[in-house]
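# nightly structure sweep
# worker-07 picked up a monomer target from the shared queue
# config: single-sequence mode, recycle default, output format = structure tokens
# input follows
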Amino acid sequence: MRKLFLICLAAGLAISCSPQKPAGNFHEESMEAYQERMAWFKEAKYGMFIHFGLYSQLGGVWKGDTVWKYSEWIQSYKDISKEEYAPLIKTFNPQDFDAELIVSTARDAGMKYLVITTKHHEGFCLWDSKYTDFDLSGAPFDRDVLRELADACKKHGIRFGTYYSIIDWHHPSQQPNLDKESHWERWGKVSMVEGKKEEYVSYMKNQLKEILDNYDPSILWFDGDWADWWTLEDGIDLYNYLRGIKPELIINNRVAKREEFLRDYGTPEQFHIDSLVNFEWEACYTLNTSWGFKHGDNNWKQPDVVYEKLTEINKFGGNFLLNIGPDGSGRVPEESIRILLEVGEMLKNRH
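# output follows
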């Protein structure tokens, strides 16, 4: 998959969008208009990724067993049914979530934008959505995390972005393939219930419009495009729908099939391109091992490593999106803050 991704990028498809250009008006966007829309993103260079959801309170541990890799995939690793997983909403109470601390840390670290997981694969929505009860309003918590972050970003001159997963382990339209052997085939490649796709696509569009209307993000960052039932055409349609609501919006290539559709920018994950290319891209990395908070995950990338990655990624024209994972109470690990601030000092001393 990585090889195909790089071949597609090398062909310059991030600009032309794909061999199948999007239907509608947006594929007619001139190079000048595209460059103008992407200008702030190209200049940003460095951003903060935040993985935060119900999984954060588990910290990668289920019934005494620790998951082997990413904590936000714990439902899939442990084959937890939606009926058993959903009650986690009743104990999700991130009273220590501090948007001011997070955003000011991003600013002092030299970051220019921020992207938070509004809905990861678990399906839990980190805001009060009109279209589901599996959202923040169902938790013993009466604050609007996204509003707090969006306001703090505006205050500190940081661009605000939101992540949204195409697959959804909670929504009744989808079900795991429990007869398959690997967790990826069971949960990563979750199946669409016959006759339910139109309902789910409408659900996604309604929620994404809700996010745009309520929080006005500069970026929509998609994931989960690998599902067999999600087609290139589906992604193009969603891309055009969202750009129709907010023409200046920047959307990553995972809105469709990432190997084919590369507008508005490519998204290598846990690796980066090491040559000059003629398209826009962003490499996302974890700061330790897991994206979501995980107990005992102390495999931190130290400041010199982060600085070197940032320097190399920027050298070849990419942005660096570096992740933090608050715990279930909303606290960001102190080591994350220390590392980010030290990198910020290194950047200040470079100029």
